């Protein structure tokens, strides 16, 4: 009789083991979801005070002893930004932005083929992916970061409007050393508020986005000027301001 009871208790413990593991995994999943979904949902209405990239730049400057480093960042509302700024960054960075679901699969495939054919590695990130990376992640290209970037991109695309995504991008993108957002960039580089930026100035700012540490809006190289002209042409080809109406 005692043996039967011991065997029954052993079988019961074996059955409870997997259940406990599932309960623990479920609890961990709920914590992860709460720690990620809630902040992303809140940022649909709350303007970010800072971003992961800004924090990392500050830490890097402090660690290197760069006391001259100054971070400039000031949030400005959508209606305080020149309407040309939105179409300029879309034309430069992500021309399918109004219609894709967060990822440009065609651009990703083109970048992969180009790299396999011996070309240099180039990014195919959408504006939504760049917002996810700038707000929450770090710049290194690792599989872990790319996976987290994809996860946050899906959250952002489902919880925010397209206009909110573009508004946040224009406010947190790095346009120069320590210069974050179109509000700070317009004042530092053109000595005017962002609402008064011309199409050419917006195209100039968009032209430096691929590498704001080496490309300068206030001291444009021949490459930046050439890229500015190309972006202006793409803005016109897409239909100008009408391309982003209805977002």
Describe this structure in words.
By secondary structure, the protein is mostly helical. The chain has two domains: 1-42; 54-244, Orthogonal Bundle (Penicillin binding protein transpeptidase fold). Helix content is 61%, strand content 3%. It is built from ten helices and three strands; from the N terminus they run ααβαααααββααα. The protein has helices at residues 2-42, 52-63, 83-93, 105-116, 127-136, 143-159, 162-172, 181-190, 199-207, 222-238, and strands at 72-73, 174-176, 179-180. The protein has a three-stranded mixed β-sheet, with helices on one face. The longest helix has 41 residues, at 2-42. It is globular and about 65 Å long. The model has no long low-confidence stretch (mean pLDDT 88).
Entry summary:
By secondary structure, the protein is an all-alpha fold.
User: pLDDT average, as an integer?
Assistant: 88
> Helix and strand succession?
HHEHHHHHEEHHH
- Indicate the CATH architecture of the largest domain: Orthogonal Bundle
Relative helix content: 55-70%
Query: Order of strands in the sheet with the most strands?
Result: 1-3-2
Report the radius of gyration as a whole number of Å: 23 Å
In total, how many beta strands? 3
Helix/strand-derived category reads mainly alpha
Main beta sheet, described? 3 strands, mixed
First and last CA, distance: 73 Å
Strand content: under 5%
How many structural domains can be distinguished in the coordinates? Answer: 2
C-alpha geometry: globular
The CATH class label of the largest domain is: Mainly Alpha
Pick out the low-confidence regions. none
Number of helices: 10
Task: Say what the CATH topology of the largest domain is.
Answer: Penicillin binding protein transpeptidase fold
Give the CATH superfamily of the largest domain: Biosynthetic peptidoglycan transglycosylase-like
